[in-house]
Amino acid sequence: MEATDVAIDEAQVLEKLERLLESEDAAVEPLTELLGSLDARETARAVCELPIEQQAELLRRLSPEAAVEVLDTLPEVTVVEAVEELPADVAAAIVHELPSDDQADLIGAMDSAAAAAVLAELADDEAERIAELAAYPEDCAGGLMATEVVALRDIATVETTLRRLRAGATKLRDLDVQYAYVVAKGRRLVGVLRLRDLLIADERSRLTEIMIADPLSIPAETPLDELIAFFDSNSFLGVPVVDGEGRLLGVVSRRAVDEAAEEQATSDYRRSMGVVAEELRSMPVLRRSRMRLSWLSVNILLNVVAASVIAAYEETLSSVIALAVFLPIISDMSGCSGNQAVAVSMRELSLGLLRPSEWLRVWIKEGSVGFLNGLVLGGLLGVVAALYAGNVWMGIVVGGALAINTLVAVLLGGVIPLALKRAGVDPALASSPLLTTVTDMCGFFSALSLATLLLDKLV
Amino acid sequence: MEATDVAIDEAQVLEKLERLLESEDAAVEPLTELLGSLDARETARAVCELPIEQQAELLRRLSPEAAVEVLDTLPEVTVVEAVEELPADVAAAIVHELPSDDQADLIGAMDSAAAAAVLAELADDEAERIAELAAYPEDCAGGLMATEVVALRDIATVETTLRRLRAGATKLRDLDVQYAYVVAKGRRLVGVLRLRDLLIADERSRLTEIMIADPLSIPAETPLDELIAFFDSNSFLGVPVVDGEGRLLGVVSRRAVDEAAEEQATSDYRRSMGVVAEELRSMPVLRRSRMRLSWLSVNILLNVVAASVIAAYEETLSSVIALAVFLPIISDMSGCSGNQAVAVSMRELSLGLLRPSEWLRVWIKEGSVGFLNGLVLGGLLGVVAALYAGNVWMGIVVGGALAINTLVAVLLGGVIPLALKRAGVDPALASSPLLTTVTDMCGFFSALSLATLLLDKLV
């Protein structure tokens, strides 16, 4: 009952929203009132269901501040598409309201013509700053940093600093990280100041006395992996980003790194299951179909290649037709065993417990487990096959093939992520198809060549 | 070259560490010196490679503070096992040094006898507090909260507060969240104070004047999903946790929620690939083999069930042996299509764009994509099959079976995570085996029953 009520409410909300957006009367109050009654997830659900023109119309009618609040609730792909649909001046007013790292992400994700049009509507210095930030890859320090930083001169005292902060109190409002940075002439970073230390310090102290001197800092090119390792090793809430001359560029917060790491992890999961692009079910059918087919068509090709091994042994198979029952099992089980080894390698890589060069260590560790599990699984399936065919040799062929193939699968699965990582290919996306193609071929080959060898015992 | 050098260094470090731990001389300086030369990941790699007795010996020799630094670098499963191996008094000294949420996680994860022994060594009030915290499930507000909170009385002024903070300055040191909480008599929560507001406030103000009154708070039972949604909707760095009477229990930081969400996402990924427990390659072979077999043995059973469909049609198959080449392809491709639908549902569930009750919406959206992709993939494979067998009916059987099965797979894959979620079963772990078993059976059945129907056209 409850679920149905919720569904009705949502249908009503969506209908009301659409009616408001279709009416010529552009009064904004009913819209803000309706949106104000929804929480973040309800807003996201309603807005995602709107056609893209109406999403843009909604953003156009709201104030830029209110539009940003709506955008904050939406998946990134929806944000980009809706903003691209807006007139450049409206989009620019919204971009102006975003924090610096979100500005750069959005502009970087838009198609280049739309992005250029938006930048042209912004003040020159803001446009330049955004374009510079957007030029960094999204998953490195430059792409994750915020440029909203409290930078204080090294010659100040606690008292003058507090007076200045009190005068411009709002500047502290939206800071994600609770540090201020002490800079020398030319914005060269010389120290870090925790705001809480400012709170408890003697007012006559100089900042250079209470700051942490020679602070850790990172270059803008630092990749996400190293940022994760950095925050694993240090308990800071943020780390300053500097250029080649040691000048303060911005700050990467632990929060931004955590969020990027989570996004990477969930997207690893999705890509390992063949969702290559960020699909939402509210997208048009043809587009969703095409997104999925890009992955499926590679897979069907690989599958045909693997199955060609069976075709080569059709003669054997027609003499020992019972084998056809067990070929899909051998193929699927080897895939399962190999994927476990893939997942353990992915985990050890991300924990820093394994380096891409250590394939020998992986082989030693996987070899023993693969041998054991091959014996157990091969033994099990062998017994089933022998009973089914009423022929012990059938058990030996099927069980032997699965045992061999389990060993091959874990050896291969353990090192595939290492090899892909070294080659710069995304292991989450490519490991599984690569693995199952090879293990399918190897499994079919083991079973059918063993059967050919023992043909007189089997028929 | 570089990789080899690194490997040699690490072997040397490990050897030196083992030699130090084996020597009777319990001098701690060489140990701390060696560990001091390693960063977090190097420490983790070296310690994980040690046998468990030596891991415990290392922790025993270090000061509790230094032991905590080592533990911070290790995967959770290693921490728990090493601490369980310690004498209770040594373990208690280490637990005493941990932040409150880590204390509770560790005690909660240890086996109950070892946990009780450690608690018995701690002061009564600390033991009681830890036991209370450990009683909360790990992924709810109570399990994620820290009890280190700055709680200020509502009758204080800014000046008296600053004086008290300056007197006990260290109390602020290790706070994760930059809020203080204002409480009335009986620790009842009445307001939230941002430390930065304290910094810029007039010293004569009362805390009640500058605090945010009637702050948002959450009960200790709030599950992780709702915490993620809460921090999605609000930009706070933390949220206070209260009991049924509104008394302040602790604070859940955005950081703790982000980290738990990331852990959940990576563990979803691993479990979807059949890594049920937290395996590390440094664990003993038999244990790793057993961990993996628990998942594999369920899968082999399901595979045998699915393959029984082929066995039932052995007669048809022996007349149309070419079909045996295509059965594994149909099985694998349907699994791929279905897993895409699983992953999209998992994503929409976690974004809050889909509720577990909305299977009808999923079916409508998946039906259209499944129909289209079924046509494309079935058409492709049908052409291959017709060419291979030199018989257009063969193409119709194989292509038709894949088309039907693609539709079935996405309809099923789209709703399986919803059904499992409602049933309280982990969708990441169970979706894929469930899906592929049903789609295998359905695919084999479609292909073989179609072939039986059209047998006179095929031979």
What oligomeric state best describes the polypeptide chains here? homodimer
Largest interface: A-B, 115 and 114 residues
Biggest sheet strand order of chain A reads 1-2-3-4
Largest sheet of chain A: 4 strands, mixed
What's the helical proportion of residues of chain A?
55-70%
GO molecular function (chains A, B): magnesium ion transmembrane transporter activity; metal ion binding
InterPro entries (chains A, B): CBS_dom (IPR000644), CBS_dom_sf (IPR046342), Mg_transptr_MgtE_intracell_dom (IPR006668), MgtE_N_sf (IPR038076), MgtE_transporter (IPR006669), SLC41_membr_dom (IPR006667), SLC41_membr_dom_sf (IPR036739)
Transmembrane segments (chains A, B): 293-313, 367-390, 396-420, 432-455
Subunit structure (chains A, B): Homodimer.
Characteristics:
459 residues; 4-stranded mixed sheet; Tetracycline Repressor, domain 2; alpha/beta; homodimer
A few lines on this structure:
Two copies of one chain form a homodimer. By secondary structure, chain A is an alpha/beta fold.
Architecture overview:
The structure is a homodimer of 459-residue chains. Chain A is of the alpha/beta class. The first copy, chain A, has 3 domains: 2-137, MgtE N-terminal domain-like (MgtE N-terminal fold, Alpha Horseshoe); 151-269, CBS-domain; 285-458, Orthogonal Bundle (Tetracycline Repressor, domain 2). Helices cover 69% and strands 7% of the residues of chain A. Chain A has 23 helices and 7 strands. Chain A has helices at residues 2-22, 29-36, 40-49, 52-61, 64-73, 76-84, 88-97, 100-109, 112-121, 124-134, 141-144, 158-167, 195-200, 207-210, 224-233, 254-272, 285-312, 314-319, 323-351, 359-389, 392-422, 427-453, 455-458; strands spanning 151-153, 179-184, 188-194, 212-213, 218-219, 238-242, 248-253. In chain A, the strands form 2 sheets. In chain A, strands 1-2-3-4 form a 4-stranded mixed β-sheet. Chain A has a 3-stranded mixed β-sheet with strand order 5-6-7. In chain A, strand 5 (218-219), helix 15 (224-233) and strand 6 (238-242) form a beta-alpha-beta unit. In chain A, helix 7 (88-97) crosses helix 9 (112-121) and helix 8 (100-109) crosses helix 10 (124-134). Chain A is globular. The mean pLDDT of chain A is 89. Chains A and B meet through helix 1, helix 3, helix 12, helix 13 and helix 15 of A and helix 1, helix 3, helix 12, helix 13 and helix 15 of B.
